[in-house]
Design goal:
By secondary structure, this protein is an alpha/beta fold. It is 38% helix and 17% strand. The strands form two sheets. A seven-stranded mixed sheet has the order 3-4-2-5-6-1-7. The protein has a seven-stranded mixed sheet with strand order 8-14-11-10-9-12-13, with helices on both faces.
Length: 499
């Protein structure tokens, strides 16, 4: 855990009488008002606008105490550059994106606040929350002179009445021209794994951060980044590199709060809110690679290959009581580029099911992959079509057939539907991204040893390809497996184990 905050530096806990006042039942006295204005944690507790009680963890106190010091430094003419890394669902957005902007405006009503995140609609949500907080009774007790100048102002930008202060919210990559900040917050710059794995999006985010966001800061400012990091090449990773390479780059202080650590009582960061079972399930669901960033807040570079095939189970027979939705998912080598190269791609069809099996100590079941068969071959179109039809007839009508349908591969679906017309209904799968992103949900399933194959001649070719992915020469069988997983996982039907 990287931090320089003493937990004793945070405000003391609320007394029962003060709790009654914070809840809005008793007006605050002068000392309580001053405490709430001065300390960010106390400000949040006093103006808390959620229907559920505010739960304060050790990281909550430390982050708020560091914000208090940043505000003190701002008054003294010193800038702050701060990165806060905490796991998802641990309250970082409450602290820095919902409550800090309006707290800062209350203290400095002639200054500008800018909040940026991965999407404009999320920034607009922070804006709406802040406006509602300012209109609340408790906020008016603390800062009676603060009012929004025009209730009809655009949600992404509003100003304070009779003061120079303003709030601006922007999606990263959106228009920030004409806006500035004395307090600037960047909260969650990636939406999902697909964004995080995209080199183009990472480059765009870095350009927007350095050329648009950072250039908006005042000569003295507070710059705060709050995120669950996705990878070593995201904005935080690039800031770390820039600080190593260039002594003139702003020197960001990093507060890191991993989800699990020996330094925590009970082994986990926020047991006041989440149970050990919740944490264990998150680690099991994400797998080592994703959990390193999103939970432990210390992402690692991909080392070797993604799918841990050494833990795959090969069975001589499937369990008799295994009753699941079975699919045959096809990846067709149908484009000219695929079939004309010196080492042509394969057509592959995975016959598979997904079972959700309860695990001891975990509140939710975890997925298991069952693969009954994998058909593949380098066939000319007529032979390929004959093999597909023959396979569908052999599998039986209860086995659903599907393939991906997306730009560049729409002819794949159309061809498969034509081949099986009158025999089977072919389902379309619209991939959520490129194959590297789509494989990510399978990583923890392989890692946990939850992949089960029916013994057959196809086992070794499949395992060899999966072991080498994404660095191997071919990915056709992996693509078929992913397409089948997506066919099943996206269905609204209950996915239960019958074992």
């Amino acid at each position: 855990m990287t931090n320089s905050i003493s937990l004793s530096s945070s405000p003391v806990s609320l007394s029962p009488a003060t709790t009654e006042r914070v809840a809005g039942r008793i007006p605050l006295d002068a000392i309580e008002r001053e405490q709430a204005r001065r300390h960010h944690l106390r400000f949040m507790q006093t103006t808390w606008a959620r229907p559920s009680p505010m739960i304060v963890g050790q990281h909550t106190r430390a982050i708020c105490a560091r914000i208090d010091r940043a505000i003190t430094d701002y008054r003294a003419g010193r800038s702050t550059y701060l990165i806060v890394m905490v796991p998802f669902r641990h309250g970082k957005s409450e602290i820095v994106s919902r409550y800090l902007p309006v707290h800062f405006l209350g203290l400095f009503p002639d200054e500008e606040v800018l909040v940026a995140t991965y999407a404009q609609d999320l920034a607009d949500g922070f804006s709406r929350f802040g406006r509602a907080l300012i209109r609340g009774d408790r906020y008016r007790e603390l800062f009676p002179d603060i009012e929004i100048s025009d209730e009809s102002a655009a949600v992404h930008h509003w100003e304070l009445r009779d003061r120079l202060g303003s709030f601006s919210g922007s999606g990263l990559g959106g228009t920030m021209t004409g806006r500035g900040y004395a307090c600037g917050v960047l909260d969650d710059y990636h939406k999902d794994r697909q964004d995080a794995e995209s080199q183009a999006i990472r480059e765009s985010n870095w350009t927007s951060f350095t050329e648009s966001f950072l250039t908006r800061r005042a000569p003295v400012s507070v710059t705060l980044i709050a995120a669950s990091p996705w990878g070593v090449d995201d904005i935080i990773g690039r800031i770390r590199k820039a600080m190593r390479d260039d002594p003139d780059f702003p020197r960001f202080e990093i507060l890191r709060w991993p989800a699990m650590g020996d330094e925590y009582e009970g082994g986990y960061l926020f047991l006041d809110r989440f149970s050990p079972e919740w944490y264990r399930q998150q680690f099991a669901t994400l797998g080592t690679y994703a959990a390193a960033g999103l939970l432990q807040c210390e992402p690692v570079a991909r080392a070797g290959n993604m799918l841990k095939t050494d833990r795959v189970e090969i069975l001589d027979a499937l369990p008799e009581k295994l009753s699941l939705l079975w699919v045959r998912a096809w990846d067709l080598a149908s484009t000219e580029k695929q079939v004309a190269k010196s080492d042509p791609d394969w057509t592959a069809g995975a016959w598979m099911a997904v079972e959700y099996r309860p695990e001891p100590g975990l509140p939710e079941p975890l997925p298991h992959l069952w693969v009954r068969d994998m058909v593949r071959g380098r066939w000319a179109a007529p032979e390929r079509d004959r093999r597909i039809e023959q396979t569908a007839m052999s599998d039986g009508p209860e086995v659903r057939v599907g393939t991906e349908s997306v730009a560049g591969y729409k002819d794949t679906y159309e061809r498969l539907a034509e081949v099986l017309m009158g025999k089977r209904v072919v389902e379309k799968v619209t991939p959520p991204g490129d194959l590297l992103v789509r494989v990510s949900p399978l990583e923890p399933i392989f890692e946990a040893g939850h992949v089960h194959l029916l013994r057959g001649d196809w086992n070794q070719p499949f395992l060899s390809e999966a072991t080498e992915y994404p660095r191997g020469a071919h990915d056709d069988q992996v693509a078929a497996l992913v397409t089948g997983y997506e066919m099943i996982a996206s269905r609204p039907l209950p996915r239960l184990s019958f074992l």
